[in-house]
């Protein structure tokens, strides 16, 4: 992405009315020292990557194109070639993508495709693809579809037998995972948690229940900066002193990855409001905290003295697991142990 474009491509008048303002991504510039480092030795004389020029014209179909999450230098040669050759580029917000296009001299027509209009636009766009048009899809930053629009269009194109491919590239969740110091695999990307506290805590409790059932993975979320502190408080209540990390402003001038326990991070961000694009990660549960054995043991002990309903309520309160999940397991145990 870039500072204000010196030349603005032809745009649709549509923009995403619900999209966050990501103008800060354009003004952040490269990482410190990037400009002064100069080209890599031999880079200019090396020419294009083998096979790049021979790829030929962009074929008919839909291409999902990853774009920078903060540093303009992260737009790949192949991505630029696809965006230049496409008949139309679909984007979340034409204002954001116009700045990216201006910085790289791309003049392809832009039209907005976002959560508010995707369902209505899909039939027309699929018809264009079936007529032989070459469409590219980008998000404001990063890899399309992951917490961004495009899933409905991609599914519809696949259902109609339209070729769908992608140019890989930047992804905030994967970059945060590699920098976090937490186990890199397996991992579970959850997207954005619900904005309201009750729904958010319910979502966390479902994940904790999955861990009780055997899930052991590093968990990854995106979060808005103004909700980060309360999210971390809820995480600390559910996941206790689990190792965690908060990554923000990745690839930008003020990139930061803060590591610690969930409780430590919750305390820090209560006193220091966060800024920028945020990714939150927590490590997998210790082996002793996963599996059904502990839950079953607690329920069996409670069932010796209480009804199924009361036993489930007691254990759910002690474990912070959803009551309906614990009740279902208690009911199953009560039937098998009779």
Plain-language structure description:
The protein is α/β, with parallel strands linked by helices and 338 residues long. It has 14 helices and ten strands. The chain has helices at 23-27, 34-37, 43-46, 77-85, 94-104, 118-130, 151-159, 172-180, 197-212, 228-239, 262-271, 293-303, 308-319, 323-336, and strands at 61-65, 88-91, 110-112, 134-137, 164-167, 187-191, 218-223, 243-248, 256-261, 278-282. The strands form two sheets. Strands 3-2-4-1-5 form a five-stranded parallel beta sheet. The chain has a five-stranded mixed beta sheet with strand order 6-7-10-8-9. Strand 8 (243-248) and strand 9 (256-261) form a beta hairpin. Helix 12 packs across helix 13 (308-319). The chain is elongated, with a radius of gyration of 24 Å. It starts with 22 loop residues before the first helix and ends with a helix. Mean pLDDT is 84; it is low at 1-54.
């Amino acid at each position: 992405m870039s500072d204000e474009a010196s030349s603005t491509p032809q745009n649709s008048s549509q923009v995403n009315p619900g999209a966050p303002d990501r103008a800060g991504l354009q003004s952040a510039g490269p990482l410190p020292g990037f400009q002064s480092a100069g080209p890599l030795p031999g880079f200019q004389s090396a020419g294009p990557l083998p096979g790049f020029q021979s790829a030929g014209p962009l074929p008919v179909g839909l291409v999902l194109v990853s774009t920078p999450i903060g540093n303009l230098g992260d737009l790949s040669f192949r991505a630029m070639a696809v965006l230049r050759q496409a008949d139309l580029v679909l984007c979340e917000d034409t204002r954001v993508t116009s700045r990216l296009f201006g910085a790289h001299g791309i003049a392809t027509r832009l039209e907005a495709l976002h959560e508010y209009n995707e369902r209505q636009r899909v039939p027309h766009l699929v018809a264009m693809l079936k007529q032989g048009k070459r469409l590219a899809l980008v998000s404001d930053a990063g890899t399309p579809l992951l917490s961004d629009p495009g899933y409905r269009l991609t599914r519809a194109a696949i259902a109609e037998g339209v070729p769908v491919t992608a140019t890989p590239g930047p992804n905030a969740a994967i970059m945060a995972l590699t920098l976090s110091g937490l186990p890199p695999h397996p991992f579970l990307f959850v997207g954005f948690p619900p904005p309201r506290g009750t729904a958010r805590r319910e979502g966390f409790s479902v994940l904790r229940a999955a861990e009780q059932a055997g899930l052991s993975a590093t968990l990854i979320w995106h979060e808005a900066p103004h909700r980060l502190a309360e999210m971390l408080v809820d995480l600390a209540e559910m996941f206790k002193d689990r190792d965690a990390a908060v990554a923000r402003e990745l690839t930008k001038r003020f990139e930061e990855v803060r590591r610690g326990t969930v409780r430590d991070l919750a305390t820090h961000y209560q006193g220091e409001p966060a800024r920028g694009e945020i990714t939150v990660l927590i490590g997998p549960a210790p082996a002793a905290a996963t599996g059904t054995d502990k839950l079953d043991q607690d329920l069996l002990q409670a069932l010796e003295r209480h009804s199924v309903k009361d036993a489930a309520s007691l254990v759910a309160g002690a474990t912070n697991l959803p009551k309906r999940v614990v009740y279902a397991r208690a009911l199953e145990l009560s039937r098998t142990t009779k």
